[in-house]
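Class I SAM-dependent methyltransferase
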Amino acid sequence: MNTSILHPDIQEFIIQNTGADLTKLALQKNPFPDVEWILILNQIEARTKAKEKLPTWFSTSNIIYPSKISVEQTSSEKTAAYKADLISGQTLIDLTGGFGVDDYYFSKKFKAVTHCEINADLSDIVKHNFNQLEVKNCTFYSGDSINILEESDQKYDWIYIDPSRRNDAKGKVFMLKDCLPNVPELLDFYLEKADSILIKTAPLLDISAGLSELKNVKNIHIIALENEVKELLFEIHKNYSGEITIKTANILKEKTETFEFVLGEEMTFPLFDAPKKYLYEPNAAIMKSGGFDEVGLSFEIDKLHKHSHLYTSENLIDFPGRRFEIQKAISYNKNEMKIELANKQANITTRNFPETVENIRKKWKIKNGGNLYCFFTTDVKDNKIVLICTKII
């Protein structure tokens, strides 16, 4: 860890240039010749990225940032805070501590948190930052987390792991066994050290693939931020063998949309119908969950088609996703498209439709934007239709 960047003049320079054009800045002469220019530029770049993602770090003085990749890969404060509300206890050990954002929030819920990080420099940075952030209940270990667990007799309430993909796994189907640490291989060992484990994975992991590699899974959490899926969480409890619950959360500025269902639970089939007055599009977390039938049944709304994943109702309801009022439903043919949409402006979404958004825009000369929202989809009778809607805020 290079502490020279903590000099008050350098810190002031970093603050003043946060958000500046780094390409232009890099061409300037280094005003602090005793410190590498690239180090200062890296701090400016990382702090700029932290402004929205990590406001607590951004607003705290004398924070040291690691590489911009570490900042990009770390949890946002919003998802970290959500995670910390899911679990609680006396002790937690984070086997892949990274920049420590998750542990900052875990420290508010647990009496003692242990941060393990294989990169010694990053471990020192987090330790320094936690002093600045006034976190007093976190212990830091640098080294391989397997060795740290093996050398300790302590048993923890929770183990938290955020495995990273190995570089040689590029191009392969994403599996947990292709990550470090190899959680499936080490799971029995981990369960000797804690009765509960929370595993964070990238959103591109297939849920069924994750379940095929793991055991004792009780809950799977799908966390989206502003309708973009950011994390999957597999919650494991020793000796658990009951039903698995999928819990989705879409964290928005003013609220968090939640929806949950039991995986594989027997249920009646959803109802299908033609478009009614209102249209509903599930948020990204629900789309990732695959709980499309469960949504229709839970909210008592009709599906347009088995594979369309759009829903409709005569009366407006609260819904975890986007809501629209259908102004007109037309058949997808040359005559209707010429009359209603050709050469106009609209936001386009396709669901269970054979053409891409790009092809539709080009074919009918539809400009992007405006107040109209058009869904190109397939109805219950397998007809290709277009729903021309206005968005309900």
